[in-house]
Amino acid sequence: MSDESIARKVLEEGEAIRAARRMLVRGAAVVAGGLAIAGTANQTFGGVIVVVGWLILVWGIHKYGRAR
Predict the structure, then answer these.
(1) Which residues of 17-42 are buried (b: 16+ CB within 10 A; e: fewer)?
(2) Please, are residues 38 and 46 in contact by the beta-carbon 8 Å criterion?
């Protein structure tokens, strides 16, 4: 492997990890929003939003594990 290809691979791995971290932050934000909705406005709708947030978190954890 040349130095350029190694550097490119490291940059791609770094970007994959950053993308996975962003996904985890988005999932956590959706869960928090769902809890806020469930606590104030509509429990059913808030619960659905929380479950969607959990799915985003699972996807983010999967992406993070694959990137490492």
Answers:
(1) eeebeebbeebeebbeebeebbeeee
(2) yes
Please write down the long-range contacts of 10-13, taking CB distance under 8 Å and 24 or more positions apart.
Answer: 13/67
Q: How confident is the model at residue 1 (pLDDT cuts 50, 70, 90)?
A: low
Q: What angle do CA 12, 57, 64 make, to 5 degrees?
A: 25
Helix or strand or coil: residue 15?
helix
* Amino acid letter, residue 42: N
pTM attached to this predicted model: 0.83
Contact 8, 16 (CB under 8 A): no
Where along the chain do its domains lie?
Answer: 3-67
